[in-house]
């Protein structure tokens, strides 16, 4: 069996890697589109900025009563308006962040770690 030499060149490897990245993003998009919208109580346990391809903002949430944490991209406005320790309603679809609505000052919530 004769394998084309193109697959073993730098260009061939770049094409293969790009194809894998594109396919994985399409699969994730399709899974998110078919996932239900979920709203759970969550707490911001960490927030940070990244600098890949420009400044990016992240919020990390812990869902109530679960070990699961969810890391989400956030806009600058969302990042600046929320603090570590904020508790509220997190809405997401699959791995896609939709919204975080912090509890109102008059609401009394006990967050169950």
How does this model look, in words?
The chain has 113 residues and is of the alpha+beta class. It has 2 domains: 1-34; 36-102, OB fold (Dihydrolipoamide Acetyltransferase, E2P) (Beta Barrel). The protein contains 2 helices and 5 strands, in the order αβββαββ. Strands 3-2-1-4-5 form a 5-stranded antiparallel beta sheet. The relative contact order is 0.17.
Give me a quick take on this structure.
With 113 residues, the protein is α+β, with helices and mostly antiparallel strands. It is built from 2 helices and 5 strands.
Strand content: 35-45%
The whole-number mean of residue pLDDT values reads 85
Q: Distance N terminus to C terminus?
A: 58 Å
For the biggest β-sheet, the strand order reads: 3-2-1-4-5
Count of individual domains? 2
Class of the largest domain, according to the CATH hierarchy?
A: Mainly Beta
What general outline do the C-alpha atoms trace?
elongated
**Continuous helix count:** 2
Report the radius of gyration as a whole number of Å. Answer: 20 Å
Q: What is the CATH architecture annotation of the largest domain?
A: Beta Barrel
Main beta-sheet annotation: 5 strands, antiparallel
Number of strands: 5
Q: Give the H and E element order.
A: HEEEHEE
Helical content class: 25-40%
Coarse structural class: alpha+beta
Query: Do you know the CATH topology of the largest domain?
Result: OB fold (Dihydrolipoamide Acetyltransferase, E2P)
Spans of at least 5 consecutive residues whose pLDDT stays below 50 are none
């Amino acid at each position: 069996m004769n394998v084309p030499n193109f697959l073993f060149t730098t260009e061939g490897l770049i094409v293969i890697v790009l194809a894998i990245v594109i396919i994985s993003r399409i699969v994730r998009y399709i899974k998110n589109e078919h996932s239900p919208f979920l709203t759970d109580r969550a707490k911001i346990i960490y927030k940070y900025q990244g600098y890949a391809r420009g400044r990016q903002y992240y919020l990390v949430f812990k869902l109530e009563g679960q070990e699961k944490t969810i890391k989400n991209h956030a806009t600058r406005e969302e990042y600046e308006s929320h603090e570590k320790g904020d508790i509220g309603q997190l809405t997401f679809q699959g791995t896609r962040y939709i919204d975080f609505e912090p509890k109102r000052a008059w609401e009394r919530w006990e967050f169950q770690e």
